[in-house]
Structures are given as structure tokens and as C-alpha cells.
Amino acid sequence: MTDLDTSLIEVNQLMTADELEKCEVVIESGKQVFIEVGNALRDIRDRKGYRHKYGTFEEYCKQRWGFSVSGAYKQIKASEAAQLIQQNVDTCPQIDYGKARTVATLTPPQQVAFAETHDISEMTSREVEKAVKEYKQKLSDAETRVSNLADQLTDSEEENELLREENKKLEQSLKQQIQDLEVKIKSESGEKLESLKAELEEAQEKIALLTKENLRSIKRQKARESITRFLSDTGAYMAQIEMNIRKSLDDPEVQTEVDYVVQILEKYTDTFKSLIIKGEIIDVSSEQIQVDKQQLCN
């Protein structure tokens, strides 16, 4: 075959635009086939359609379609993952079976989160597998950190519980100490009250003694005043006598009066000496002084 013939064949085999459109329709419909297959298998499983001819869903998958029940479950999960992503992620309108099966290994919330952060439509199946693996590792690391934090929180809670127990014991101890202190204060207050009573009695005795001494002092003062008055009156009497003596120096009665005054002075002198020696308080009667004065004047 010449080069010309080869060129003619190649030109004849070139796809037209209509043929391309038809092929793309087939491809597009094929992308959705696994979703329809998964939905059909799920419906047969959930509604027990396999019981018309088979005892179990596993027998139905193996004998009717020639694949294992685990393959059927993968098909179901892949279709569910693809539909979930298409419903929740606008940037991923289509997803093939291989990618959907890989993403289906994540939980439904994780599937949506993964599709939101990865452009699955522009990625190959191998790239999706690698990205899912890394995503799982990040989730695992995050779960490990959360678990560690939970353990730390548990340890903290246990420590807090121990602290609460210690605080409770301390509170009880403080209450007991306060009660003991109150008892001690009451006891010491009683003892101190008795001591204060004794001091009060002693003070009362001292006050009584001082009062007695003050009374004695007052009496002594009165005696001194009486003596002073007597001496003053005696001085006046003596002056009067002196005048009488000067007037009647030769009068015999004057001599008699002088003798009488001397007797009176001797009497009171003896009395004053007695007061001073005995320390007694004797108030000289003013009436007696008046009587003596009258006698002297007469």
C-alpha cells in the first residue's frame, strides 16, 4: 500500500462532528450507568426482590450477575457517593465509577468536604486515589490530636476531681478548726471573766479602803479646822483678857479670870496632844467653844 492509499484511508477514517457527538452521548450515558446499576442493586437488596428466585442477596449477585456481594456493595456505595457529590457540589457535575468508588471509602460528610476542596472532574483516578489517601491521613492525624486532647481532658477532669475531694476535706478540716476555736474562745472567755470578777472585787476593796482613808482625811481636816477656829477664838479671848488686865490690873477678879483661862488652855492643850498622839478624829464642839468664850468674857 502506497503512502497515497494510506492517506486516503486515514482521511476516510476521520470522525465527523456528528459521529463525535454520538460517541460523547454514549460516553456520557455510560458515566451514569454505574449510578443506575447501584440504585437498582440497592433497591433489589432493600426491597428483597432477590427472594423471587434466590434465598439471599449474595446468591442473587453471584448466580445472576457473576460478581460477589462485596462488589455489589461497592457498586451501591459508589453510586450513592456520586449522587451525594452531584447534589451538593456544583463544581463536580459528573464523576465516573472509578473515582466514585475511591471517594466512597470516606464517610458521606467527608465525601462532600473532599469534593469541595478537590476538583474531581479534572483529576485522574490515580490522582483521586492519592488525594483520598492523603485526606484520610490528615483525618487520622486530626483524630489522633482530638483523642490526645480528650485524654488530656480526661486527665484534667480526674485531677479536678481529686482537687475537689481535697478541697472538700480541707473545708471540713477548717470547719472543725473553727468549731474547736469557738469552744476554746468560750472556755478562755469564762476563765477571763472569772479573772475580771476577781480583779473587780479587788478594785472594790481598794476603793473601799481609799474611801475610808479619804473619810479619815476629811475628819482630820475638820478637826484641823476646828482647832484652827479654836485657836483663833482663843487668840481673841486672850486679847480681850489682856485688855481687861490692863484696865483692872489691881482688880482681884482679874487674877481669878486669868487663872480660869489658863485652866481652859491647859484642858484643850491636853486634848490636842491626845488627838495627835492617838491619831483619833475628835471634832471640837463649837457650842463648847461658845460656852468657854462666854465664861471668859464674864
What's the helix and strand layout?
Blueprint (H helix, E strand, L loop, with lengths): L2 H11 L3 H30 L10 H9 L3 H20 L8 H7 L4 H10 L7 H123 L4 H27 L7 H12 L1
Helix pairs in contact: 2-4, 4-5, 4-6, 5-7, 7-8, 7-9
Largest sheet: none
Number of strands: 0
The stretches of 5 or more residues where confidence is low (pLDDT under 50) are 4-9, 276-285
Q: Structural class per helix/strand content?
A: mainly alpha
What is the N-to-C order of secondary-structure elements (H for helix, E for strand)? Answer: HHHHHHHHH
Q: What share of residues is helical?
A: over 70%
Strand content: under 5%
Morphology call: rod-shaped
- Mean pLDDT figure: 75
How much is the radius of gyration in Å? 69 Å
Helical stretch tally: 9
Description:
With 298 residues, the chain is an all-alpha fold. Among the domains are: 11-123, no CATH class; 214-297. It has 9 helices and no strands. The protein has helices spanning 3-13, 17-46, 57-65, 69-88, 97-103, 108-117, 125-247, 252-278, 286-297. α2 crosses α4 (69-88), α4 crosses α6 (108-117) and α5 runs parallel beside α7 (125-247). The radius of gyration is 69 Å and the shape is rod-shaped. The N and C termini lie far apart (203 Å).
